[in-house]
Amino acid sequence: MQLQSVAVKRVTGAFALIDSLRRQGVKHIFGYPGGAILPIYDELYRAEAEGGIQHILVRHEQGAAHAADGYARATGRVGVCFATSGPGATNLVTGIATAHMDSIPMVIVTGQVGRAAIGSDAFQETDIYGITLPIVKHSYVVRDPQDMGRIVAEAFHIASTGRPGPVLIDVPKDVGLEEFDYTPVNPGDVKLPGYRPTVKGNPRQITQALKLIHQSQRPLLYVGGGAISASAHAELKELAERFHIPVTTTLMGLGVFDERHPLALGMLGMHGTAYANFAVSECDLLIAVGARFDDRVTGKLDEFASRAKVIHIDIDPAEVGKNRAPEVPIVGDVRHVLTDLLRRSQVEGIAIDPTQTQAWRDRIARWQEDYPLQVPHYADSLAPQEVIVELGRQAPNAFYSTDVGQHQMWAAQFLKMGPRRWISSAGLGTMGYGLPAAMGAKMALPDEEVICVSGDASFQMNLQELATLAQYGINVKIVIINNGWQGMVRQWQEAFYGERYSCSNMETGMPDFVKLADAFGLKGRVVRSRDELESAIAEMLAHDGPMLIDAQVKRDENCYPMVAPGKSNAQMIGLPQHKKLEQPTEILYCSSCGAKNISTHNFCPECGTKL
């Protein structure tokens, strides 16, 4: 259908909303109807009949928000979800907060009671505008249907530019029904003179950054989700290779740099690789690219990269210097800044000879050899890491969503993904995220393999979305890492709470996940041993339709390495016994335990004492 570009006489506010969404290129909407939003759903009914737009009926509004979020992460486009007023709107709150914490572009449309009833405690009335103020980038209440086209266009522009984020549009029921003379607003017509995100980095600061890079002997790139939002993977790779700089990523940054590249160190932080955490503790220059110095990354903040000068590149000026004051702050779009930095280095002939960082890279290589990630093999049980590794081997190019907990960290450690192929709740840590997010990603990219890695506790939070998979035939594969616990809670209770396992055992009352899948008309299979694993995953990937694997793994396996709360990144627990200590440049002794030859670290590798 060709969209009209001239004024349309006497349409409703609901028509204006749907027409405006189509002008923004929206193909899929995730939602659940209800009284206050029925005028919009009535118009949506007509739009679906005409083609070009599809509504996906979820079974809970939280699923709608997470599906729109997964849609956005997989594509970089704005995800859209609908819910009615009152409980429908409040059920979206967790999904909105998840998107806000991870800077995901979404437009959320909620129904509201009629304008005259607002503030009267009418049936299913909540102030969703006020409730969500702290967790959105911007909000609107549509008081006049004449404003609908402008508001939708502005919402998409705000959600997708600068630092991305969710935008709420609350539509009173009578606004959806009211007729008016409609003039469409197209995406290019948006005018927001007070909203001008900084895109280009300051040239003087870029020059200062290049000088620090040129002088550095032990540089490290610390890359977050902002680099993915900016689609800066190519520029990041060129920067790392040109200056021979190792790269570590946050949980949000996974996939932005090829994990198979010789310069890749994997994820850093609480459950990051030992060599990435050692590197950040020992580097002399930390180049933070689209990262926010989150507490799960930094550990004890005043000891994070304590020997390093810092260059911080981010599009949000509020993040630069918030947790760590950089020597060189650069506000701007990550891709534009890296492009300018690379261009300037070429023009000015600034380069680093490979030998300048060779000793540093050799040192990191020794850490990689001495402290590798471990995949245990038990005689009587299946290790969760084995499941993740086999999944990555058979589906190396899939899009992976996860829930939150141990399985999420194992997936982050062992899966090797490309840009936008990692879909996980990082900042908020939302259990129940994985299945609906995978659903959203698959609707956006029907020809791609999409796999949800979940835990038995997380999966039970939004398992009703199996019905959505069944209704629409959404070919998502699900692998449940089933240890019968809230796994990460149990690990913390074991390590820090005297093995008092308060309310974390999920075994009693757990459903039979295969029978559950069957109840929804889907295929399921249990895996209990290593001998079954390879064939089960192959069967799942070959199956033409959604399928669930219940992988019953070792119940008390812990996720290591781990940085304990309040400790520096170099003080990890659960490391394998190192094969050898590096030859130090000088002999130092630990003041606490007397260990000898410890000058290669800023902590004692025997007892963890800071030097």
Properties at a glance:
6-stranded parallel beta sheet, 4 domains, Rossmann fold, 23 helices, alpha/beta, 611 residues, 17% strand, globular
CATH topology of the largest domain: Rossmann fold
Quaternary state of the chains: single chain
> How many domains would you count in the coordinates?
4
β-strand number:
22
Structural class: alpha/beta
User: Strand arrangement, largest sheet?
Assistant: 3-2-4-5-7-6
- Major beta sheet summary: 6 strands, parallel
- Radius of gyration, in Å, reads 25 Å
The pLDDT mean sits at 93
Separate helix tally: 23
Q: What amount of the residues lies in strands? A: 15-25%
User: First CA to last CA: what distance?
Assistant: 69 Å
Q: Could you say which overall geometry the principal axes of the C-alpha atoms support?
A: globular
CATH superfamily caption of the largest domain: Thiamin diphosphate (ThDP)-binding fold, Pyr/PP domains
Q: What level of helicity do the residues show?
A: 25-40%
The CATH class label of the largest domain is Alpha Beta
CATH architecture of the largest domain: 3-Layer(aba) Sandwich
Low-confidence stretches: 580-587
Could you describe the 3D structure shown?
There is one protein chain. The chain has 611 residues and is of the alpha/beta class. It has four domains: 8-189, Rossmann fold, CATH 3.40.50.970; 203-370, Rossmann fold (3-Layer(aba) Sandwich); 384-552, Thiamin diphosphate (ThDP)-binding fold, Pyr/PP domains (Rossmann fold, 3-Layer(aba) Sandwich); 583-611, no CATH class. It is built from 23 helices and 22 strands. A six-stranded parallel sheet has the order 3-2-4-5-7-6, with helices on both faces. Strands 11-10-9-12-13-14 form a six-stranded parallel sheet, sandwiched between helices. A six-stranded parallel sheet has the order 16-15-17-18-20-19, with helices on both faces. Strand 15, helix 17 and strand 16 (422-423) form a beta-alpha-beta unit.
